[in-house]
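A protein record pairs a chain with a discrete description of its three-dimensional fold. The following entry can be read in just this way:
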Amino acid sequence: MTSISNSDEDAWRLPRLDEVEAASVPPRIDTSIAHTARIYDYLLGGKSNFAVDRAAAEHILAAMPDLPTTLRLNRLFLQRAVRYAARRGIRQFLDIGTGIPTGGNTHEAAHQVAPDARVAYVDNDPIVLVHGRALTSDAGPGRTTFTQADLRDPKAILTAPEVLEVIDFAEPVAVMLVAILHFIKDDENPTGIVATLRDALAPGSMLILSHASSDADPARGRAGAAGWKNASAEMTMRDYDRVLAFFDGFELVEPPGIRPHWNPDGEPEDPLDSVENVWGYGGLGILR
């Protein structure tokens, strides 16, 4: 996993949200309902969360105490996949469901390989928008933008002005759906959402996708997923075959299949590579 220096950590350090005066909280933010991005933030040791988010996270941890390890592995997957794409010439990244900023974001991983890579971040949480604006860069070739939008409306994302400022869909794009589709319920047509995004892409584009699964222990997985029931979005864990189906139309990168320990470029080993119990899958597919 990409290490973060002390100076980097200071740059990302934020006050705990409920330590900030209520007047400073944007009015669009509902502090009475746990939000998925803020739950993730707490599980990863962040401070951009409220008491309601921490309570929901603790309920989840009671069933899945090893979940934070999976979340860190998911972050490692994101970084490896972004660098893989950049090494193969991708210079545009559409990161949907980015979550609250922390170290090792998409633009940081991409710029390690290609300083001119452009990134459009998308999330539907106003808190993420507040912090995400600090990531935007209007100068230089490696521009980043941030859009508040919902994955349930993929056409709005594809036409958002902030997205089109940095993304040219006539050229290959890496679309990133990292730990987001499990918050789309079956009746919200997640397969159709991915297909809409795929159909807007040029050949050579990539899909970087990870998804929660209870395959490791179905009973514990169901108990953990119940912790999201009263959050801003429920979690729908899916098995291997259902996650694999999201890659329809894409050619999966070797090794075949989708794997929690994804590292086709043979990057340096990480202690997380030896974790056995992982609550999800990740993979990268190329549109031919």
Q: What stands out?
A: Strands lie at 92-96, 118-123, 144-148, 174-178, 206-212, 250-252, 280-287.
